[in-house]
Structure formats: structure tokens, C-alpha cells
Amino acid sequence: MTLLTFPVVEDGASADAGDSVLVNDWVGWLRERLDPHWRPGEWDVELLLFTGDPGNPRTRVKVCPLPSCGITVGELHSSGYCKICNDEFMSSGLTKPEFEAVYTRANRRLNVHRSEATCGVPACRRDVLAQGLCVTHYRSWVKARGRAEIDRDAWMASQRPAAEVAGCLVLGCTRERRSPRTGLCHTHQAKWRAWSTAGGAGEEDAVLAAWIERQPPYLSAHMFSLSPLTPVARLELLYALQQRDVRGMLVCPSSVRRVVGELSGLPCIAVADGQFPDPDL
């Protein structure tokens, strides 16, 4: 359920959200004032997903400039590198030109320039499982190498691409579906299993659907998702972010993620009591 399909709050639906008429009036007020064209290229209202552009001076996102890195961070160190690369540089004893000439970052994470790694077989678009291969080609390779001496590159070049599979049902998640029953990728399937086991929620389809609706996709440092919020709180936080833009304030995706985490249990922010996160988004 995205912001575009927000439902009317029914009488008695949530005592915490206050009187349903008041909340519905509040929702109407917000929707009239939201900018549907806010942050084009960064905010996707259908996916409830913000992907910050490092080239936008109004977004607090930086990219580590080392070719072997390129991850997104909120701020770079004085060296101009991310923390991992800065630590390697400081311990290397090299000058910056010397360091940059020889350094290659290991275990590079997802970043603004690169999505989930795809299979090394030409034209295969499936996600990597192991050794640079998707699950189908990895299993085939394990069998092939066990039968005889074989050149891996030649074997890969001879393979046909595996059939593409449907994507994960979590909004904004680009990873392929691993569980036919739940419709989730490997990561979200593991999270669902842990959550349902710990909470004793069972495997009911309605419970699963409600859980999926509130799950964010994988988020790098330049991203945030409003999926974990209730429909009303999504509108409220989006309005707050847009008003900050009007006032010339920056959007810091990592800070917004922390705020989303703090507000994720609130039916409606405006009528909630208690402490709230630091407003420095």
C-alpha cells in the first residue's frame, strides 16, 4: 500500500490514532499540501523509497572516490575516503598517490553506482549466489568441475543464461524471489522466519502480507524507505521532509532512517505522546 492508496481511517480502528474524524481531516490537510513532484530522480512515491543523488547539494551523501570502492556515506574523512578506505590509508604509511596506485578494497558493499551483483555467465541476469554465479549456474558448475578437469572461463562462455525469476514482494526490493510460498528474497525470507518464530505469528497469509507491507528493501547509506511507517505517519514524515526543503535544509538519508525506526510503531505522529527523535534530519 503506497501513499497514493491511503485508506480512510474507520471509526474505532485505532484508539492510539485518536478520533477517526480528526485523523481523516488531518490526512486530507496533508494530502492537499504534499508536492507530488518532490525530489524527482530521488523520491519514488510508488516504492516509498528515497535514493539520494550525491550530485545534489541538498542531499547529504558522499561517494568514496577510490575506483575499487565507490560506496556511499554521509561524510568522508579528511583524507577524502570512506572510513574503511581511510583506515587502510592511515595504516599503509603511503602517500595518497602511492596508496591509490596499489589499493583495492576487499568486500565492496552495494553502493549508488552498483546494484546486486549478477551472474558471471554472459547475458545471465540472475543474482549471484556463490563464486560469481547464480544458483542455477553455481549448481551446474559444481557438478561440471567434479566430473573432469575443466576451464571455468570456457565453461561459463558455453552456458546459456538462466531463466529470470520474479522479484521479491517487499516494496522496492530488487532481489530475486527465493521462496515461492512467501514471495520473498533470501534476505527477507530469513527476516520473516526469524520474526514469525520469535513472535509466534504463524504462517497466515494475512499476517505475512501485513509484515511485507512494513518492510524496507536493502538500504545503502544514500537511501531511506518510509515502508516501516503506518500510512498516516508516511504522509506526516513526507510532509515534514518537503517543508524542510522549502526552508533550504539538507536531507540526510541515514538520519531519516533513524527517525523512521523511532516512529515505526506510531499510528499517527500528530496525536502521539512521548519523546521523539532528534529533528536534525
Could you explain the architecture of this structure?
Helix 1 (20-33) runs parallel beside helix 8 (231-246). Residues 1-18 and 110-115 have low confidence and may be disordered. The two termini are 25 Å apart. This protein has a 3-stranded antiparallel β-sheet. A two-stranded antiparallel ribbon has the order 3-4. The protein has 281 residues and is mainly alpha-helical. It is built from 9 helices and 5 strands, in the order αββββααααααβαα. A hairpin with a 4-residue loop joins strand 1 (43-44) and strand 2 (49-51).
Gist?
Helix content is 36%, strand content 4%. With 281 residues, the chain is mainly α.
The end-to-end span amounts to 25 Å
Strand content: under 5%
Mean pLDDT: 83
Helix- and strand-based class?
A: mainly alpha
Radius of gyration: 23 Å
Put simply, the count of helices is 9
Strand order of the largest sheet: 1-2-5
Largest sheet: 3 strands, antiparallel
The backbone outline, from C-alpha atoms, is globular
Q: What is the percent of helical residues?
A: 25-40%
The beta-strand count equals 5
Show unreliable segments.
1-18, 110-115
Query: What is the H/E order?
Result: HEEEEHHHHHHEHH
Any descriptors?
single chain; 281 residues; mainly alpha; three-stranded antiparallel beta sheet; two-stranded antiparallel ribbon; 9 helices; 36% helix; 4% strand; disordered N terminus
